[in-house]
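User: Hi! I have a protein structure encoded as tokens and I'd like to know what sequence might fold into it. I'm fairly new to this, so please keep things simple.
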């Protein structure tokens, strides 16, 4: 295993731990949106043409991940309201 494999394993383990805390769907959508966003940015810098569908997909994944995170925070605040 080289350094890239160890970095990939570290990212997967950290994402799994974070997934238990934040929720699997939110973590997957956020991670997928960030990876696709970085890929789109790199492809655009290298001069490749991108389709509108790719940009829309990246935007939808990022927005969905953000919304799931915000709704999870809202539901957590509502369920902990009686603890104050």
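Assistant: Happy to help. Inverse folding works backwards from shape to sequence: for each of the 84 positions I chose a residue that suits the local structure. Here it is:
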């Amino acid at each position: 295993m080289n350094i890239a494999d160890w970095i990939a394993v570290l990212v997967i383990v950290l994402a799994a731990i974070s997934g238990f805390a934040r929720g699997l769907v939110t973590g997957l959508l956020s991670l997928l949106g960030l990876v696709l966003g970085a890929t789109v940015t790199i492809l655009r810098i290298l001069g490749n043409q991108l389709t509108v569908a790719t940009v829309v997909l990246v935007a939808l994944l990022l927005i969905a991940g953000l919304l799931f995170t915000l709704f999870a925070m809202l539901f957590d605040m509502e369920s902990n309201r009686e603890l104050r």
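A useful reference point when you look it over: Residues 3-83 form one domain. Feel free to ask if any position seems puzzling.
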